[in-house]
Design goal:
about 300 residues; 2-enoyl-CoA Hydratase, Chain A, domain 1; seven-stranded mixed beta sheet; two-stranded antiparallel sheet
């Protein structure tokens, strides 16, 4: 064994050789092709600063940005049967679930959390598109219903971030039954007089759009989000006509009355907090009122002693 080859040369190469750089330091904008440093992208909540393109964002990262100081309480999701139909296509559905759980660290596509935005306590339900396209199956449906039930129990407004390709067809009729179940859960929240705000992110399609995602008191969309039931390509093939420019995008839907407002991701927290305070009739304190409240009360002047009569 040659000690120069096995020890000295690797040591010299490690000192003067080329260092390998991580591959994820730069992110390419899908819209303009611009390369953005990943730290700048994270600081801007995964929104490309120059083009305003909204990248997909993990569910827990969204919660960290949304809640005050990134503090929140995660709610446990109900347990449901895994792979009830023993479904198999190119792969077993059980294996797809296992891989998705390993990749995302989530049990399924929906997360429920309780926290505060600008001091106002709310319940947030988030769909993570990275988990099998955010598809709606038994576990996701049960989690959404549990979120609404918890909001009613604790008397909290609910904000839902929708991101989904639709129903999870590997679960067949069990998946489709989540549409009426979640719709009933929305009705119970409204019967309790609690606000329900929906944030439509890219994409929100299929059975999710046909149920709870379009039943909010206020519908907010992120810029450029694809929102609809069937995809544009399927519609074009069905009607055999060219669709208008920007069809099913957030801005087009707002112009045609399907969405109330389009709000960039960094402004969502402030906008939703303002809307909830209006819906809950919570008095807002202006900066001038806060300054006045912090000032000490003026001391009363002591009465002047009466002058002695001469």
């Amino acid at each position: 064994m040659n000690w120069i080859t096995n020890y000295v040369r690797p040591k010299i190469n490690s000192m003067f050789g080329r260092r390998e750089m991580p591959e994820n330091l730069w992110v390419k904008c899908p819209e303009t092709g611009e390369m953005v440093f990943h730290k700048d992208l994270e600081e801007n909540q995964s929104v490309i600063p120059s083009s305003g393109y909204h990248m997909k964002i993990p569910g827990k990262a969204r919660l960290n940005f949304f809640f005050d100081d990134g503090q929140y309480e995660l709610l446990e999701n109900p347990k449901v049967p895994t792979d009830p139909l023993k479904f198999r296509d190119e792969r077993r559905y059980y294996d797809r679930l296992r891989d998705a759980r390993t990749k995302t660290g989530l049990e399924d596509a929906v997360i429920n959390a309780v926290g505060r935005i600008e001091g106002l306590e709310i319940l947030a339900t988030v769909q993570d598109f990275a988990f099998i396209g955010g598809s709606l199956g038994m576990a996701a449906g049960e989690a959404i219903v549990r979120g609404f039930e918890t909001a009613v129990e604790r008397q909290l407004p609910l904000v839902l971030f929708a991101a989904s390709g639709g129903a999870r067809m590997q679960e067949g009729i069990f998946s489709l039954m989540q549409l009426p179940r979640t719709t009933v859960a929305v009705d119970r929240l409204k019967e309790a007089g609690l606000p329900y705000i929906v944030v439509l992110t890219n994409p929100t399609t299929g059975g999710v759009t046909a149920s709870y995602a379009m039943l909010g008191d206020v519908h907010i969309a992120e810029p450029g989000a694809l929102i609809g039931f069937a995809g544009p390509r399927v519609i074009e093939q069905t009607i055999r006509e060219k669709l208008p420019e920007g069809f099913q995008r957030a801005e087009y839907l707002m112009e045609h009355g399907m969405v109330d407002m389009v709000v960039p991701r960094p402004e969502l927290k402030e906008t939703i907090a303002r809307l909830l305070k209006i819906l809950l009739k919570t008095p807002s304190v202006s900066p001038e009122d806060e300054v006045t409240a912090e000032l000490p009360a003026p001391e009363e002047a002591e009465p002047a002693e009466e002058s002695e009569q001469a």
